[in-house]
Amino acid sequence: MLAKAALCTPLTRGWWALGVPADDEARHRLTTTALLRHFGSKVFASHQSALVMAGLPLVDVDLTRVHLTRVDDRQSRRQPAFTLHPALGVALTPKERLAVAIVQAGAVNRPISALAAADAALHRKRLTAADLTQACALLARHPGTATARAALVHAEGRHESPGETRLAQVLRHLGITATPQVVLERDGTRYRVDFLLEDAPVVLEFDGKVKYDDRDDLFAEKRREDLLRSWGYEVVRVTWTDLRHPERIARWIEAARRRSRAKSA
């Protein structure tokens, strides 16, 4: 009755939450918290559940199931709402658990799931590249680890958002080399751009906003682009939708290169 009245939301057997979670991530966090309290020190959050608890980006992950890893028991257990994974055989620090969770998330979801979380963890200085390498070695015999490890070779702490991580991935697949987070300066004015092509004065900016609600923000972005162009740079702006069409991004970049060459001819 309480659930029907939306006063409480069932999370897992014997556990309820007051009210209705705002979204799937909030529900997953609550369910993970409930299960951690239920099992106590016998388990720790792992896979994407650990990413949720750590506040790391969630890209292409399944949030319908909570993942926990046992501390000692080598038995696995699968229930409708959660999976208990067997112990890894070694004691892990919280930092090591987070690195392991990133690799696990990539193994059971998609490589980009691990890469987006890794970029954020590196950017926030919560992990190092060595931590990720060690986690991959620990999980070397686990299914999916090889694929996650191949993606994590490209982990980059200079990426400031999942959108930038995805754009960098698209550029690699296109064979385009660009440097992230480059500072451009002239006459005392400094701008930091998301990417700068290595072979041409072409700036790539990831725009995560669907639209600009504030006219001042829109004006500031336009002024910034105009100024960069006055400095001799071409600007290519990429949105979430564009990331699903790499060929479109490739055309825009090539057009920007042509414009740049025409200016210098």
TrEMBL record:
InterPro entries with a match to the protein in the record: DUF559 (IPR007569), Restrct_endonuc-II-like (IPR011335)
Residue ranges constituting the DUF559 domain according to the UniProt record: 190-243
Gene3D superfamilies: VSR Endonuclease
Annotated SUPFAM superfamilies: Restriction endonuclease-like (SSF52980)
Protein name per UniProt: DUF559 domain-containing protein
UniProt organism field: Pedococcus cremeus
Taxonomic lineage of the native organism: Bacteria, Bacillati, Actinomycetota, Actinomycetes, Micrococcales
